[in-house]
Amino acid sequence: xxxxxxxxxxxxxxxxxxxxxxxxxxxxxxxxxxxxxxxxxxxxxxxxxxxxxxxxxxxxxxxxxxxxxxxxxxxxxxxxxxxxxxxxxxxxxxxxxxxxxxxxxxxxxxxxxxxxxxxxxxxxxxxxxxxxxxxxxxxxxxxxxxxxxxxxxxxxxxxxxxxxxxxxxxxxxxxxxxxxxxxxxxxxxxxxxxxxxxxxxxxxxxxxxxxxxxxxxxxxxxxxxxxxxxxxxxxxxxxxxxxxxxxxxxxxxxxxxxxxxxxxxxxxxxxxxxxxxxxxxxxxxxxxxxxxxxxxxxxxxxxxxxxxxxxxxxxxxxxxxxxxxxxxxxxxxxxxxxxxxxxxx
Length: 345
Description:
Blueprint: H1 9-17, H2 25-34, H3 43-63, H4 69-73, H5 76-96, H6 99-122, H7 128-141, H8 144-147, H9 155-180, H10 201-214, H11 222-243, H12 248-275, H13 280-304, H14 314-344
Helix pairs in contact: 2-7, 3-6, 5-6, 10-12, 11-12, 13-14
């Protein structure tokens, strides 16, 4: 039995006739200009290509007749949770510093991309080759300072060029939509248009403020954002106070206002992180890990005393919390000393 199902004539026709989903006329012109550029392949690249072919063929075999029943039942929707889970497992493995675990989790994430591509191929939408060609072409197009004549001596210049190229791509894509739509005139895509609304809220806030800042809509310094944080804090405190003195109907209205102010407060926090060059998702993950470690230390300390943490008094819990912070600082200090000794060898 062959590893791959041969595409039907109908599917091959659909793949030939389908429009380019990511590129407008201007972007395609840039691609043609870069078509002659060739990046040399070394032994590492060739070996990676061979293993990639084997992995694609393996997943296709699992989907084929007489393959794996579970794999054959999956759809794009049913795989969504696994795509998210694998992404976070990659981040967890990255933080452990375990190279073998990190490598394995990256492989699991890669398999999800292949799986979705094979499902799309079966539907006649696109193939894994389209996925790779698309990102390869895009990376060449967005690095004209490497593969073209553009100049970019610093990271900030690279990012500026990147946003300009993306804006041109959005305009070209919108132009293509306008040509096929029944709207009376062309529309200009906004800078925030392609920030996915399905993003987790922290990531969406980060991307929205990041995009806006790159075209000059930003605070002049950090003090302005910190003042905004204080403003949102005062507004929240005012609503909380009002919520304790109002009627039931008024309480419901105030609760909605509290939710809005909490959102504004969180948004300001994300904006502070973005302004300082910190990824808020990573910062929050580290804060989560710190809280988890401190809490688990308290539970272990209570257990060592023959007690349940939940049964302790509030004052005792506070004492244990402060002690867990001291233990954490001690571990951090020892880790720094160890790293310093290692660097001097």
